[in-house]
Design a protein that fits this description.
seven-stranded antiparallel β-sheet; 31% helix; Protein Transport Mog1p, Chain A
Amino acid sequence: MKRIGLVVLVGLALVAAACGKTEKETQVPKGNYELKEVKLYSDKVTVSVPKDFELMTDEMKQVKYPAGNPPEFVYTDAEGTVNVAINVVDNPLTEKDIEPLVEQMKSMYKAAASEWIDSGKLEVNKKTYGFVEFKIKTPDGAEVYNYIYFTDYDGKMFMGTFNSVTEKLDDWKPTAKEVLYSIKL
């Protein structure tokens, strides 16, 4: 009888623990595309990107990032209209810096955004990430969705970006979230 009581108590504790988690902690989004895992930074970082994406060529990076200083890794579709960029920025960052950085990025991007979507913090694989999410018009008139996320990594800023032309957004937005939730540092 004691054994049954213990099993019931353990079961209730597990249910209570699961109910106490926030939706952002428990629901890993599932996108519409098959992903492949890639290892970066001497295999210290893994991220899943769409299976058909390839690393952007240096020539294409020069066109997409004309001001220079492109992200180290940019995975892109064949047309270059949907991208996943990963970079470790040589700026010091600790977990306590994430919330103020969210606010700083929010004030910076919100003024330029054609549509502000969201910003905040979330937990992914036991790491706190800050994020900003918005649409912005490009100089050629296209509107681009941007999902920028960042966290501390070895005292530096790990930054990822998912962007897509808005015409493809309904199809790609769930995958943007799935890519973030796949990251292991």
